[in-house]
Design goal:
Helix content is about 70%, strand content about 0%. The protein is mainly α.
């Protein structure tokens, strides 16, 4: 059949019949054309980098943060007491630690002094005593213990004794 004859028949046919004579064609969906290079890539946009920073750490660019800056809160009356009690608690912990350290020091010093007294009494009795072995000479660690514990204690006692003698002479 000739195309012109077919076209004439379709045009002269009633409207209901015309739609049945035409082949069914579905409309093809074409998405709107996208601009590939007309805009800045997302990595180069400022909003991309701002979104990487957590909100509390961002500089105040939103009106909500500006309102927060303007409005300041009053001091809580309990803040002073909380700070004072923190200081008092800290100092009490320091005092307990100091007391424990001092009691351990005095125990070590008393043990060393009693050892010295025992050695002196043995020597007075005329017994053979290995003084260097008992006192730990030659062993750097034991010598440091003696220096810390005993010698410092003896120096403090001597200073106190001399101070008391000066006061008695006045």
């Amino acid at each position: 059949m000739n195309n012109t004859v077919l076209l004439r028949r379709v045009l002269l046919a009633p409207a209901a019949l015309r739609s049945s004579l035409l082949p069914v064609s579905r409309p093809i969906f074409h998405p709107p054309p996208t601009r590939q290079f007309a805009s800045v890539p997302s990595i180069a946009q400022h909003s991309f980098w701002v979104s990487l920073i957590p909100k509390p750490l961002r500089k105040g660019s939103s009106p909500a943060t500006k309102k927060k800056k303007i409005k300041s809160k009053e001091w809580n009356p309990a803040t002073f007491f909380i700070i004072i009690f923190l200081f008092i608690g800290s100092m009490s912990i320091q005092m307990i630690a100091l007391r424990n350290e001092f009691s351990a020091f005095t125990r070590r010093a008393d043990a060393k002094i009693s050892l010295l007294k025992e050695i002196i009494e043995r020597i007075k009795k005329g017994e053979e005593v290995d003084v260097e072995g008992l006192l730990g000479t030659g062993d750097p660690q034991r010598e440091m213990e003696w220096e810390e514990a005993v010698l410092l204690e003896i120096e403090q006692e001597d200073a106190a004794w001399e101070e008391s003698r000066k006061q008695e002479n006045r």
